[in-house]
Sequence to fold (561 residues):
Amino acid sequence: MWNSGQQQRLMQERMILAQYFPTLAWYNPVVRGSTYVEGVLTTNGGGRYQVRIMLPAQYPNDCPDMLVMQPALLWDAGGRPMVTASAENHTLEAIGGHTRICHYNPRFWTPQNTIYLVALKGRIWLEAYEAHRRSGRPLDDFLPHMGS
Amino acid sequence: MTRVFVYQEQLDALRQRWRPGDPELSVDALGMAMDDGDVFHIYLQPPRAHFAGEPCRARVTLSGTPVAAPAGDDAPRVAVAVSPDGGVSGLVSGPAGPVEAQVQVVPVSAQLYTRSKGLLETDALAGRSVAIVGLGSGGSTIAVALAQSGIGRMVLVDRDRLEAGNVARHACGIGDLGRRKTTAVADLVHGKNPALDVVTADVDILQNPDALENAVRGTDLLIAATDSDRSRFVLNQLALDQRLPAIFGRVLTRACGGDVLRVRPFEGPCLACVYTEQFLAQRPREFSRRSEAREDAPAYVADDDLDATVQVGLASDIAPISTMMVKLALVELSRGTSGGLESLDQDLVADFYVWANRREGVYASWPQMGYEFTKPAVLRWYGANLSRNDACVSCGVAPAGADNIFANREAMA
Fold:
């Protein structure tokens, strides 16, 4: 069970997320360390990606993980699976075979960051991913703000 | 004269075994010889504190008669006799035969802090408790200092063991290599304050929040001496949730300086009010080990790049931060006790303090110390008047309108 401070925080987050990302739903919402937010994000080009944001037991003081659940695995422009940590691609080691987006540098994560911001960065990453697939340019070229 | 030390609490335990009518009660004990046999410490129970010396046999006798010289090949090297009225006598066997020794009974607590009286009400502090989370170079020295101040109860929390790379800056030494930091520091503080009630918790505070909360609950003050900003944020939330005053401290890259923050929950700024993303980027913290840097960096950062971030300072660079944390802790703990720290309380009005060890890093532009006191300089404390951030997501007021999903566990899919 999330503690009282975390409960207050998650209730606020849920309210904000419902307004700006209504396609994201909450799962295991009361079980500390098992809660995740999942749903479909659609890019400007019409691409549909099911993403999952997993909240660690010490959220919001610890950085959440973000995975792309569908398609189950993303491939880069060179035809390689995006399963390893890559500064160029802003990815981390895959979890359960799912591409893991590096959305925030954990070193600079603060509790002021929110699930909304994580989802927003995921949404931007997906746009960059599609631009990378179209152009072959490194994904990092499209994400200067997310530099490590 | 040869001196022999025995421990009051261990003698008290022995007396309880002495039945009326018995002429005497004699038990074997562990003796530790030091300084070429000038000094002996006698243990009737396994020592709780760090000890040193060469082991030898000893015997302690509760008896109405003075100590008798040990005889026989297997005679103990040290013999101590304690009479019913508390008188003690001792003999130590040497090459020239047994010699009389001066026996001193070490008090549990009553006399250890007599010289602090008038400066700090150690009796009052004996009723206070503190939790220290993070027992590295900062936390271990803070633990010792607070134990020496007469704190009554201490909760020690850490997940690590003491490694060779720690020793140069840690309060514990090479004799503790491989030990859990919690138990090594517990032994260390017992050596300073035998009456101290110490509880240890070997907890990874990021992975086991419930154990952390249970360990800290009921203490009067939280000392946050961990080595990552993530863990500091966790402790900040814990302090807010438990309405527990907290002292945070950290050292910057290359230990060029550091900062200390006092959090009085909902009265002043909390850690999240001060440690914003921009603040952390401008004042990067120190990494003393590659494993620390690895935990705190994205997985794609190469080892060579990590090595560039691991730049340790000296123990003397960390000491000012630890000392300031102890000062703030003692002010918090002694408030309302007429303990003699009122003037310090009046001086330490700021919640946030900055310290510079050297003119480098974020302090590179500071002028040389010289003889002026009107400009910022190294080796001086600066208090900053920071206010609470009303919009802080950790300690701010929650906006109305949020559904309480936790009131009904079935509310959400």
Summary: Chain A has a mean pLDDT of 91. The domain at 4-146 of chain A is CATH 3.10.110 (Ubiquitin Conjugating Enzyme). The interface with chain B takes residues 1-12, 14-15, 25-27, 29-30, 32, 56-58, 60-63, 85-87, 91-93, 102, 105-114, 148 of chain A (CB under 8 Å).
